[in-house]
Design a protein that fits this description.
The structure holds two protein chains of two kinds. Chain A is mainly α. Chain A contains five helices and two strands; from the N terminus they run αααβααβ. Chain A has one domain (about 45-145). Chain A has helices spanning about 1-15, 35-40, 50-70, 80-90, 90-105, and strands spanning about 75, 125. Chain A has a two-stranded parallel ribbon. Chain A starts with a helix and ends in a 20-residue tail after the last strand. By secondary structure, chain B is mostly helical. Chain B has two domains: about 20-170, Serine Threonine Protein Phosphatase 5, Tetratricopeptide repeat (Alpha Horseshoe); about 175-265. Chain B is built from 14 helices and no strands. The radius of gyration of chain B is 33 Å and the shape is elongated. The chains are: A mainly alpha, B mainly alpha. The interface of A and B includes residues 100, 109 and 132 of A.
Amino acid sequence: MRKILYILFVVVSTAYSQTDWQKWEAKQVSYELPTKSVAYAQNENASLAGTFLNSLKSAYSFLISDYDGDNCPFSPSCANFFVEAVEETNLLSGTLMFADRFTRDMNVFKGVNHYPLHKSGKYFDPAGNYTLNLQKIKFEMVNN
Amino acid sequence: MILLISAAELYSQSGAQDDLFSPNNRLKFANHLYAEKDYLRAIGEYKEFLKSADNDTARFRFANSFLRIGRFDEAAQNFKILFIGSKLEEEAKLFYYQSLFFSKDFNAFQTNYDSRFNFPQKYSLTLDRLNSATYFLSKTNLPSGNVLIKPFDDSLQTKLIYYYLMMKNPPKKNSVTAALLSVAIPGAGKVYTGELTDGLIAFGATLLSGFLAVNNFQHDHNFRGWLFTGLTAFFYGGSIYGSAASAQIYNARLQFNLDSEIKLFFEERNYFLPKIDL
């Protein structure tokens, strides 16, 4: 039984890990300015909570994300979404927004949902859409 | 030799006497630029021509050039000059309203429409349609549906009635209802806003983490019990907040899609404007 589980684990790991092979292929160099989400990820004018979150995010990127690869199906990624959410609202709302995003990320049928596609091929799902402010909701990407 | 020199003197440079910048030449050149759709340069030439002469067609084209390049205020001012005693009075009035319409100052259009005087009969239906379009596009102070829809053909009325009803009573979702539903059953608010799978996942995640919390407490695994309690609160709170946000996104999407559809409807039909080449 244990051997079967080991074999299953190896097969599943091989099948689903490193889905970002394309990331390492030769690509045209882009000289475009970074997208909003990337620019937001390290905000120099962040508050104390923002600085703490940025540190947390840097640690997460360094220890986990870089090894896991670019696998988040959303743009901005869940980690960036959390930082943006806290910066746009507050720690409590930001955490609730992140919890919601995390749940939506678990949905294997999210492709059926009507997320617009980002140019990277990911689902465009900015934190601004979830701030409960109707004016901030956008369905079209502007300079993204 | 004498004959050659005399002939050369007489006939060479015969154009030197002509003034290239005469009003007539300017008008010809302006008309050429206008025909080539080089409206910006045509404006310059017409402007110079109109300083020394007056001509209804030139004035009309001058104004229309402003309209074509999106300088609507100047277009409206110049069309207005043609309102009295001009052979292009009727077209100028229609194009004046077009300038107001395309400037997107729908309030000004509606005010001018209400106080219109002596508007040509042959363009009155077009003007009525433009007026209706301003209400559809601005979505403010909607008059009764009959008034709005009357100027359009029967084949289009069903579609316009649908737009009108959607604008009057959009089937929006209530954020508070969505949140309360998720308070009662995690994820129910999402199902209410049409996000069925998201709702089921939220329900499943909350239920599973809740079960694990209870189970661990029952087996005296207090640390894991509290860990899963926190996770349950995380999913439960996220589900309530996400349901409220989902209702807002639903409403925003509804509005966005309706606005886009109405805009496309009028754009595809060129705002029901007749083709007038002058």
